[in-house]
Specification:
single chain; elongated; mainly alpha
Length: about 120
């Protein structure tokens, strides 16, 4: 099988997502909810395209008119930034602990900020 540069980029993109797994993607989506506003608009939009909409690196590059290398680098750096924010601030961890220990408070908070899926 002959691999072109585009097909290799797509394979690497899919491998990144495949290696993440559903739980990792869910975690990064939650980190995006918490810390996404700390990323540049460009980085946030590229990461949303990748994680939320499941676009490949090639699709994102074509839609945004940038190189596949730029998309790949932006994704990698943005994921690292989200992890470093969480390591420093622990807001996701705190949210998960609060949910376990005080579900009523969590429900009340989610109602207040309009984040409940059943509201």
């Amino acid at each position: 099988m002959h691999l072109t540069k585009d097909s290799l980029c797509d394979k690497l993109s899919n491998a990144m997502v495949d290696n993440m797994g559903i739980k990792d993607i869910e975690r990064y989506n939650r980190l995006m909810d918490i810390y996404g506003s700390l990323l540049s608009e460009k980085a946030r939009l590229i990461l949303e395209d990748y994680l939320v909409y499941g676009l490949s690196i090639t699709e994102i590059a074509d839609q945004r008119g940038i190189s596949k290398q730029s998309v790949s680098t932006t994704i990698r750096r943005s994921l690292r930034k989200l992890e470093s924010y969480e390591e420093a601030l622990k807001l996701l961890w705190l949210s998960e602990e609060l949910s376990k220990r005080c579900p009523e408070v969590t429900d009340m908070w989610l109602d207040m900020v309009g984040r409940r899926s059943d509201v």
